[in-house]
Design a protein that fits this description.
This protein is of the alpha+beta class and 224 residues long. The chain has helices spanning 34-43, 71-76, 97-101, 127-131, 146-150, 164-168, 174-177, 189-199, 207-214, 218-222, and strands at residues 21-24, 52-57, 84-89, 107-109, 115-117, 184-187. It is built from ten helices and six strands. Strand 4 and strand 5 (115-117) form a beta hairpin.
Length: 224
Amino acid sequence: MSTHNDNRMGEGVMSTGDGMRIFPDVEACIDCGACVVSCKRTWDVSNNEQRIQITTMLEGREGAEGYNSRQTAALEEGKNPGETSLPMQCYHCENAPCVSVCPTNALQKEDDGFVTVSDDLCVGCQYCLSGCPFGAPQFPDSEGTISSDVFGTGGVMDKCTGCRERQEAKKGPACAEECSTDAILVGSAGDIADELEKRGSGSFFNDTALEIIFGDDADMVKNA
């Protein structure tokens, strides 16, 4: 059962703890960077690493007539969505590809829904980086050479933790609580589906991505 957070700063945080998911409302993101700054400040993330980053597509492009700020609808109807900013981080996927490709079991899908990394088991092979479609794995200590990919000298993997410690204390992830437009949604699959439907936003991801993130609950979010 999810633990409801009565002290949340943003409406994007609906519930925390067991079974939580993190998911972006692309139509709400304005690429302000507050999520990146709050993450770095909260966890003392180094300058050469980002546990969350904003990816902007079609920068400076206007959407098709009638579709500005309606990127999901534009894609569904084969129209130009225009400039679209997408918060990218570890979504703690139900069917996490990083877990399935890790040869040392350094990555685990925990019973409470979080995907965790065991530093002492990570050999820096970077298979998780190849397996993750969302670019979540980071290797801040990588040698930055071809050999790092071949011989496992990429350093220990790091990624978004979902602010697990904060959630255990009934607080939302730092990125979501400080998002000025509540573009980062945190809660159960049902919470997220209900919020997307209420906003009229829908999901920007394709069916394959939704199945990776939400597993059996993918249709719930897809039909929001």
